Amino acid sequence: MNPIKHIDTAILLDLIMSTPQVSGRGGAPPLPPVGSLDSRQMAPYDKCRESSLTLPTLGGSRFAGAPLDGYLSPEGDSSAAALQVSISLNKVELSVGESKFFICTAIGEPVRLDWYNPQGERIVQSKRMALHTETSRSRLIIYNAIIEDAGIYRCQATDASGHTEEASVVLEIYQRLTFQDVQSPQEFRHGDTAEVVCDVISSPVPVVVWYYQDKEITEEHRNKFQVLTNNNLQIYQVNKADEGVYRCEASVEARGEIDFVDIAVVVNDEFIMRLTYRRSALSLLSFV
């Protein structure tokens, strides 16, 4: 089909005015077949043919909605469908360790479908990334996602002429709140400065709040407690009165994610520590 161009106003008006008018209910009639027009009525069509023009549909006129193919070119033209590519998802958030798949679909006559990673490299089959490709459909599977998997993934379709079209999906990877090997109970010696360990990770970095006896430890308690930059809780001159269960609570405001772990703190007085040391020494001597 010839590309649509702007038609000379005089030619267009001549075509409209020369078409027979029919009165009556039900609105304007459809355009008459080209073969039924006399030489005077065919003149505007001939002018359009000579100019290699294609008449558009005229909104609001009596030609509105009437296909003009077959009036200017009775045989009609056919062209291959344009190559189009789409991905089932546009943007995805995935936590570390999760798996996800994406479906790429191509419309037209693709001869090849390829996926590209955020570094611009063509993706090939691997243990963590699987590909299942058919003629016009390809599925990319990402297993056990890691932070380094984040970025823009592209699906590119190629037709027989070498023409390419592509679509993309943005993959964001985040680390869920995770407490790493937090020990309970944690024991300390009377009078020492204790550091209660709470190792928690997430992305973005979590906000950590400590509680003791159902009360939040704040700056008001800084003479006794301090939350360190590594999220551990420091207790100055720990003693028996400081024993109990401490709660380490972590949250990520951006996702509304929150979790906690309870840690029992045990304080051994100096006498017990000396006795334990002596027993260990005696056991060692007996062994020798």
From TrEMBL:
Keyword terms, alphabetized: Cell adhesion, Cell membrane, Disulfide bond, Glycoprotein, Immunoglobulin domain, Membrane, Repeat, Signal, Transmembrane, Transmembrane helix
Pfam families: I-set
A single cellular component GO annotation: plasma membrane
Domain named Ig-like: residues: 74-170, 175-259
Localization of this protein: Cell membrane
Record protein name field: Ig-like domain-containing protein
UniProt signal peptide: none
Bilayer topology: Single-pass membrane protein
Main location: membrane
GO biological process: cell-cell adhesion
InterPro entries from the UniProt entry: Ig-like_dom, Ig-like_dom_sf, Ig-like_fold, Ig_I-set, Ig_sub, Ig_sub2, Neural_cell_adh
